[in-house]
Design a protein that fits this description.
Blueprint (H helix, E strand, L loop, with lengths): L12 H22 L5 E6 L14 H10 L8 E8 L2 H12 L7 E7 L3 H15 L7 E5 L9 H8 L4 E7 L1 H7 L6 H8 L13 H19 L4 E8 L5 E9 L2 H14 L6 E3 L16 H12 L3 E3 H11 L4 H14 L3 E3 L17 E4 L4
Parallel strand pairs: 1-2, 1-4, 2-3, 4-5, 6-8
Antiparallel strand pairs: 5-7, 6-7, 9-11, 10-11
Helix pairs in contact: 1-2, 1-9, 10-12
């Protein structure tokens, strides 16, 4: 997606789908954290934009404000919004959009213009807490650039090193793939990936293999280098049905991953987590047939056959290692395996109903499959 030159531009279908994921997640995120009694929680929009599109649709900063306003009565602490926008004209438009909202006193909005995402985040959030020798408050960072510069992996790593901090990053695959072998961009791609391993792309010609390589590398960096326990991505495709970008979500919160999956499933009910502008333009979001639970079954059996595991361990595997929601695995997989005699509960509580798995500590024996 080429960076727009105008202050305000049209809303593309895939951007609407992205915003739908963001909105649904932030409504859940704000509600959950409001019950935690935190003195401060923070939302950061690293490439905030003007706050509005050509036909009056809300931009991501206004979506975030409205999501929080739905739960304002529950929020006793301070909710800080940091909107960073390098372009001064867009920042001015954003200020007008924010001023049109009626915000409670504990909602603190700061719009930073004329600076990069990294500079803005470090100056106005990260460094003040470091100086005070305090960790960041629970923070959701939405990083939505046009291109690949200005999002050093080191900063993503520093954000995720703080408890209850999460990142939703728009990884601009089409532009990255197009320019990744340009000799002038080596330094930028080293910063983006936090490693030089991306240079292995030069040996890959196949289109799908290149996409899988870059996607897999960023996932492994989030997990292995940044230490994110849970990582999930959503693929956005353009009007030619080619991959445009990936939304990467990284968190250490099981509840956060559960809620993000719920948001993603609402946009693509097949569980493939994919949206394409090549679909019917009158269809705002892509709703596919029901999930292929055979895929989930194969994943669970492949991981646990011939072993014993608790219900909680199975659930964590589903959450961390598959695209499926935790509501899927009990009735759709475990119950069927028990009915077929391929799963045996080892220590059920008295009165347990057959093929029910409410007890997270119950141990299960998965028979080895032929």
């Amino acid at each position: 997606m080429t960076a727009p030159r105008k202050t305000v531009w049209p809303l593309e279908p895939h951007t609407h789908a992205k915003h739908e994921i963001l909105r649904r997640y932030l409504e859940a995120w704000t509600a959950i954290l409001s019950l935690g009694g935190f003195p401060t929680i923070a939302y950061v929009d690293g490439f905030a934009g003007p706050g509005v599109y050509d036909e009056g649709e809300d931009g991501s900063p206004i979506i975030a404000l409205k999501a929080a306003l739905k739960h304002q009565a529950r929020i006793s602490g301070e909710l800080r919004f940091l909107f960073i926008e390098h372009d001064k004209k867009r920042a001015t438009q954003l200020k007008e959009c924010v001023s049109s909202q009626t915000l409670p006193a504990n909602f603190k909005v700061r719009i930073v213009e004329g600076t990069t995402f990294e500079q803005g985040f470090r100056t106005h959030l990260l460094e003040p807490y470091r100086t005070a020798q305090k960790p960041l408050p629970p923070t959701f960072a939405f990083i939505d650039p046009f291109g690949w510069t200005g999002v050093p992996f080191q900063l993503v790593k520093e954000i995720l090193a703080n408890k209850s901090c999460e990142v939703l990053f728009n990884f601009m695959y089409e532009e990255i793939n197009r320019f990744i072998e340009h000799p002038d961009q080596t330094k930028h791609f080293d910063e983006l990936f936090g490693t030089s391993a991306w240079r292995g792309i030069s040996n890959i010609v196949d289109t799908r293999a290149r996409r899988d390589f870059l996607h897999g590398l960023y996932v492994s960096q989030l997990r292995d280098e940044a230490g994110a326990r849970y990582v999930r991505s959503f693929e956005m495709r353009n009007k030619k049905d080619a991959t445009d970008y990936f939304l990467f979500f990284a968190t250490n919160s099981a509840k956060g991953m559960e809620k993000m999956k719920e948001a993603m499933w609402k946009v693509d009910e097949s569980g493939d987590f994919r949206f394409s502008d090549a679909t019917n333009p009158a269809q705002t979001l892509l709703f596919s047939p029901q999930p292929n639970f055979d895929v989930l079954r194969r994943a669970i059996v492949g991981r646990f056959q011939g072993t014993e595991a608790t219900v909680a361990e199975v659930e964590d595997f589903v959450l961390a290692s598959t695209a499926f929601r935790v509501t899927h695995y009990k009735r759709q997989v475990l119950a069927e395996l028990e009915r077929e005699g391929k799963l045996v509960p080892l220590d059920p509580k008295p009165g347990r109903k057959a093929r029910s798995f409410a007890d997270a500590s119950m141990k299960l024996r998965f028979e080895r499959q032929p």
